[in-house]
Design a protein that fits this description.
Layout (H helix, E strand, L loop, with lengths): L1 H18 L3 E8 L6 E8 L3 E12 L2 H7 L9 E13 L9 E7 L5 E10 L4 E10 L7 E7 L5 E3 L6
Parallel strand pairs: 4-9
Antiparallel strand pairs: 1-2, 2-3, 3-4, 5-6, 6-7, 7-8
Length: about 160
């Protein structure tokens, strides 16, 4: 019974990992003498070829965590900029108003996650990317968005353009 639960959890994690974009650190800017940094990651949307997002967030150092005594706290501040970086090919994406998660990264041991969601705004023919944090107990109002307009761009829809 226990092995079955472990296998189910592992399968769920693997499925989540497979659908989430992988990121690459492309910049790291030190902001103080204790080792706190601003990290810049590039992530390609796994279901939309030709779109790359750059996400920034604050990364607390071990020295800062130890000196302030709040080991698990991490700022929720983040920023995002998404642009067309090649020919756009759109795969099988969610078209409802909640869109879908394209990236998830843990920002604390288990309590906080940095998320990027993609939403397709059909009336304006635009992809919207929202970066925000998700916490187990308290939500955060800190967020940022970026848009990639598709109007006037050569766009290939693998499943056909939505009607």
């Amino acid at each position: 019974m226990r092995l079955g639960k472990i296998a189910a959890c592992a399968a769920g994690f693997a499925a989540l990992w497979a659908t989430s974009a992988h990121s690459e650190v492309v910049g790291k800017v030190g902001v103080d003498w204790v080792g706190n940094d601003i990290i810049i990651e590039a992530l390609a949307d796994p279901k939309i070829k030709g779109v790359t997002c750059h996400v920034t967030y604050f990364d607390r150092s071990i020295i800062d965590r130890l000196s302030k005594g709040n080991w698990f706290e991490d700022p929720s501040n983040s920023s995002i900029a998404c642009r067309q970086t090649g020919p756009i090919t759109i795969g099988d994406i969610e078209l409802d108003e909640q869109g879908e998660e394209v990236f998830r990264e843990g920002r604390s041991l288990i309590w906080k996650k940095l998320l990027v969601n993609r939403i397709y705004d059909k009336p304006n023919n635009t992809l919207i990317y929202l970066v925000h944090s998700k916490q187990v107990t308290d939500g955060s109002a800190k967020m940022a968005i970026s848009t990639v307009p598709l109007f006037g761009q050569p766009v290939t829809w693998e499943k056909g353009e939505p009607k």
